[in-house]
Amino acid sequence: MAATDIPQKQKAAVYDQPGSVSTKIVEIDVPEPGVGEVLVNLTHSGVCHSDFGIMTNTWSTLPFPTAEGQVGGHEGVGRIVKLGPECGDSGLKIGDRVGIKWVSSACGNCQPCRAGSDGLCEKQKVSGYFTPGTFQQYVIGPANYVTPIPDNLDSAEAAPMLCAGVTVYSALKKSKAQPGQWIVISGAGGGLGHIAVQLASRGMGIRVIGIDHGSKEELVLNSGADHFVDITKFPRDDNGVALKEHVISLADGLGVHAAIVCTAVNAAYGQALQMLRFNGTLVCVGIPEHEPQPISTAFPGSFVNKQFTITGSAVGNRTEAIETLQFAARGVIKAHCRIEKMEALTSVFEEMSQGTLQGRVVLDLTA
After folding, report:
1. What pLDDT shows up at residue 2?
2. Cα 105 to Cα 141: distance, rounded to the nearest angstrom
3. pLDDT single digits (tens) 98-107
């Protein structure tokens, strides 16, 4: 696309009533890239549960309420159509296909960045919250932080890998689970969970027990899980005892070596911790909404007696993003995607709020 072909206006989906499930299609200006920035003509954007939390103002950990008119989204794929000043040493050129991630920019100089923890950057900007996100046709990105997309990977399939994929890839690495060992994934049929199942089983040789609503059984098993557990078939008033006993029985009667909680349900953390065997690791990924609650089963005696570990995992770093995309390009992982137009975004969020959404929705931004 020549510079003369870049329009002055573009279509975007904004949060018109933050605090509720509501989006609106508007026309806004196409931004101009500044120093060290590129302008990307987006063709696709994934829709993530994190977007839901930002839209509804239900994440108490965020520093301020979401502004009315905020453009959400953080899994965008498109082609560079304009380079801002001082991008010459970036290696990027017009026409390159790149991705915009949850962390839209990181400073690269603070201690977390130097340690490879981009997601903890002290000056990070979150796409769709601090900056205009990817629910629009044109977006600005730092030349040193956009992610190259492999040539043989479809844009719609690449989009979910920029958050869901890299997030669970990083979490699986932190779990320390080894080939042949058992891992339980809570929320296994969701946008993050079904990719985690694939990465664990097909990419890392780990045996998987997936937990989710019964409607997602086929997706979870087709993603490579050894066993599926329908959470709705277990009582809610026994502190997860029956669920724990069932999962332990599936994992050689000893429990799982690791657990990854991808869902944003508080109870899932208390349940997962009880499923671990000795030296087991619980990886916290899904951030529950509303007021924070402690993990109900996190008793010091259990940690001492079984040497449990609890660790958190934010989004992966830029290297892990590239590695995740390479898994996808080789066909090891493939997001279960449904393509929708931008106008369907509110209904997608409604499905998400009801817990009925399977896999990932990707918006086609070209129309």
Report:
1. 57
2. 8
3. 999 998 888 8
CA-to-CA distance for 75 and 135, rounded, in angstroms?
9
**pTM for the whole structure:** 0.91
Contact 136, 28 (CB under 8 A): yes
Q: Please check whether residue 294 is in contact with residue 139, taking contact to mean a CB–CB distance below 8 angstroms.
A: no
Q: What are phi and psi of 89, to 5 degrees?
A: -95, 10
Report how far residue 276's alpha carbon sits from residue 212's, in angstroms, rounded to the nearest whole number: 18
Helix-helix angle 49-56:345-354, to 10 degrees: 100
Residue among 198, 169, 199, 111 at smallest CA distance from 322? 169
Within 10 angstroms of residue 354's Cβ, the number of other Cβ atoms is: 8
Q: In what order do the strands lie in the sheet with 227-230?
A: 227-230, 207-212, 182-186, 256-261, 276-284, 309-312
Task: Quote the tokens at residue 51.
Answer: 């977007």
Q: Residue 221 is inside which H or E element, if any?
A: helix 217-222
| Dist CA 17 CA 70 (whole Å) | 10
What are the structure tokens assigned to 312, written together? 């958190």
Joined together, the tokens standing for residue 13 give 């989906």
